[in-house]
Amino acid sequence: MASTPSRPILIPVLGDQLTPTIASIRDRAKDDTVILMMEVWDEATYVRHHKQKIALIFSAMRHFAAELRDAGWKVDYVELNDPDNSGSFTGELFRAVERHDPRAVHVVEAGEWRVQQAIFEWPDKFDMPVEILPDDRFICSIAEFRDWAEGRDHLTMEYFYREMRRKTGLLMDGEKPAGGKWNYDAQNRKPPAGDMVPPERPLFEADAITRQVIALVADKFGDHFGTLEKFRWPVNREEAEKAADAFFAERLGRFGPYQDAMVHDEDQLYHSLLSTSLNCGLLDPLDLCRRAEQAYRDGDAPLNSVEGFIRQIIGWREYIRGFYWTMMPGLQTANALDATRPLPEFYWTGETDMRCLADCVRSTRDNAHAHHIQRLMVLGNFALLAGLRPEEVQDWYLVVYADAYEWVELPNVSAMILYADGGKLATKPYAASGNYINKMSDYCGQCTYSPNKKTGEGACPFNPLYWHFMARHRDKLESNHRIGRIYATWDRMGEAKQHEYLESAEAFLATLEPATSGWAREE
Ligand SMILES: Cc1cc2nc3c(=O)[nH]c(=O)nc-3n(C[C@H](O)[C@H](O)[C@H](O)COP(=O)(O)OP(=O)(O)OC[C@H]3O[C@@H](n4cnc5c(N)ncnc54)[C@H](O)[C@@H]3O)c2cc1C
Ligand code: SF4
């Protein structure tokens, strides 16, 4: 077909690109552009996502389409139930090309490797110019991260974070970090306090769009993991801003000190719960960090909390994304510790006597969320110590959290909790015995197991598992200067005690029921 000036530019906007200023849209003329949004079966089911995760993304997409239309854009929106829906991005692009006869496609790079590979094929498939634009909602581009990582053995987040502080000017007093230190983590490790009454998170009532989507999810994905009853996520920009306002007003001050604390049945504590909105594009990371800094400059929040929050976003979040694109695709199959044990069924059912794990799975099922230290030091620590197979653990984390996209889930799981990358990300495995969980939570008091008992009947399983892990990976870990001295303690124990630990761990591991198949992926 001959090119005419009236042929529009077609702009596919993916489910995590819900930002009106995204690179593909911001400089376009409205009368020369068609925005294409697609609810497709392949994306909703390539793993069997938590019901709340699907409901959140579809509802946020539908709200974003309405926002764009109100602003005068032409939006072509394909719903999941459209009888002609082909089920894939590429299939839907084919149909949209037939409908609109565009002169070119402009798309922002995908967040996930898998989708990006499909986009790379579009120029050949469609025989028209396909411009792939960088996702500049991130502060650090993929190329910039690769340059920073080049030639380094360990990609220490702290050094990357300092670069990002300098680049953004956040919490900088000239060349110096505010308060004289880059990192105030030492003040941020308080166990839960008895008088702690964290404020309720703002709950957003479902409007007509969300109710419709929830009905769709219940109908089509009713057998996926998780419940829909507590669905209260922000689904549009206005709600996401309200959630951020509530965090800055009510929780930021205590965010730092209690960042690592865990309390039974208290699912949010002082965490922001903003990851779902950040990751699909309803909130801007830099804007949130500037607001946090302003709270410190105005004397409304202490530096340790503000620095901690900013570090999570311009440090960890940016670093994790750069790490993902630098390490893919090998990260998906990395297994440096040769872990082969199947994921236990209790990760799906929550049926375990280990009270900490049962509570984390419950929150995950009810909220499609668990806070960082639950993901890292309870669920993740267990997966590491028990030697669970990385691919199964990766699938679990990708399925169960409403904020889970592979770019952020995979490095956290493979490299941070499982040490499957062999230590590029973490300088040592995040391995801990029951003592850590006992110190940082109120879980243990009413647990069937005792954190103070080291082996045998009634001993907290984390205790023998910790030593079992250390002993079985001695060849790989002993030379690590951050962990090597543990082996002096192990050697001093003597053979009889060592044997008790190993036997106790083996006995516990033998009780684990492997998950029945089909929870994470279609059989
Ligand atoms: C094993 C494991 C898996 C994880 N999977 C995901 C995931 O799929 N999606 C996701 O967004 N986060 C993931 N995280 C990081 C973190 O746990 C969540 O971002 C956080 O719990 C979200 O809740 P929040 O918004 O209340 O966070 P807050 O505690 O309030 O932190 C503020 C923000 O910092 C960012 N952040 C903090 N830590 C990290 C991190 N390690 N990586 C990336 N961003 C971070 C998030 O954007 C978060 O919203 C994972 C962590 C672990 C240990
Ligand atoms: S005793 Fe062990 S298993 Fe029980 S809650 Fe404490 S850490 Fe978890």
Q: Give the CA-based shape.
A: globular
Strand arrangement across the biggest beta sheet: 3-2-1-4-5
Radius of gyration: 24 Å
The helix content is 40-55%
Number of helices: 24
Query: What's the N-to-C terminus distance?
Result: 43 Å
Task: Outline the structure in words.
This protein has 523 residues and is mainly alpha-helical. It contains 24 helices and seven strands. Strands 3-2-1-4-5 form a five-stranded parallel sheet, sandwiched between helices. Helix 1 (23-26) links the parallel strand 1 and strand 2 (33-38). Helix 7 crosses helix 14 (303-327). It is globular, with a radius of gyration of 24 Å. The model has no long low-confidence stretch (mean pLDDT 96).
Question: Briefly, what is this?
Answer:
The chain is mainly alpha-helical. The protein contains 24 helices and 7 strands. α3 (51-70) runs antiparallel to α9, α14 (303-327) crosses α19 and α16 (355-367) packs across α17.
